[in-house]
Amino acid sequence: MSLTRVRLAAALLLASVPLASAAGFSEASFAQVGAQGGAGVWKPVRFWCDTPGRVLALSGAGAGAGTLTQWVGGARSQVGVTVGADDPGAGQVYTPLTFAGRAAPAPGFFVHSSNVENVQDPAYRLTHVSEFRVPAGSFACRYVPQAAVLAATAKHSVIVWDAGGKVTYASRNRDGTPGVMITGGTRATRDGRTEYRWNRGGYGYVLTVGLAGHAGGELRVERAGRTLSRESLLAYSVSTPR
User: pTM for the whole thing?
Assistant: First the structure.
């Protein structure tokens, strides 16, 4: 499916359902940021960024000590960072970052997010994180304002729309080229985990994401009861009605 057709299908889907509930939504983001025996440990993150070349996540409760985690392919790296106080402007929020021993070129290192397109406004399901500017470079972040789930694996970006009784899945390859798009999915939540499932042409696409206290998830492709592929999520955001 061409990228244009994916965008058109998504636009038609969103046009057919209400953009948001009057009560709005709650957003939670998680990533494999903790180091434990070389494996990732799932923790809440304040910001994360899905780009064609890498995935980035900033953990920490606010101003003060934090950790920047980056994945390039399946390789993960982490570095400590000092997070400054948010600097809000006309529709923008800049969260400054300081890396020990690294001089930042103007206008510095930061995370750029929106104070208009954010989950505090019932019109948006997710907060728009626009850019990470870090020592490795400046990275624009993928964003889908009405997604119920945004997730990233080492190979794919995953989008789930869940509104008006319709559950739709779309994937993009890590390089940004479109993957598949499927409607008619189902959602089931139990024991703090939500499982989304879609079927097409004899293949099953399954996405699991954990909620607070049960973080973690994976993307699977199945056929005839066999798992053909399994990809662990690196980071994800979940938007749920309040």
Answer: 0.88
